[in-house]
Amino acid sequence: MKKIAILFFVVVSGFAFFNFTSHPQISLNQTPDGETWAMPENVKTVIDNSCYGCHHSESKNVKGRLKLNFDHFGKEYSAVKSASKMKEILEVVEAGDMPPKKFLDNNPDKALTDDNKKLIADWAKAEGEKFMGK
Question: For the whole model, what pTM was predicted?
Answer without folding.
Answer: 0.70
